[in-house]
Amino acid sequence: MNGYERFCFNLIGRDLKEKRGDFISLRRDLMGARMNTPFE
Which tens digit of pLDDT belongs to each residue from 1-40? Predict the structure, then answer.
């Protein structure tokens, strides 16, 4: 797991505790960004 993934997982974990409803949209945005952005 690289630094970017860890950063995203930390964001997801924090948001998941605060507001569970936005977690799904956040994860969907994350997956969409991941498909559109080339990661090495």
Answer: 578 888 878 877 776 666 666 667 777 887 777 666 665 5
DSSP symbols for 1-40? --HHHHHHHHHHHHHHHH-SHHHHHHHHHHHHHHHHS---
Please enumerate in sequence order all residues whose Cβ is within 8 A of that of 16, keeping only pairs 6 or more positions apart, or say none.
23
- pTM above the 0.70 mark? no
Domains of the chain, residue spans: 3-36
* Residue 5 contacts residue 40 (beta carbons within 8 Å): no
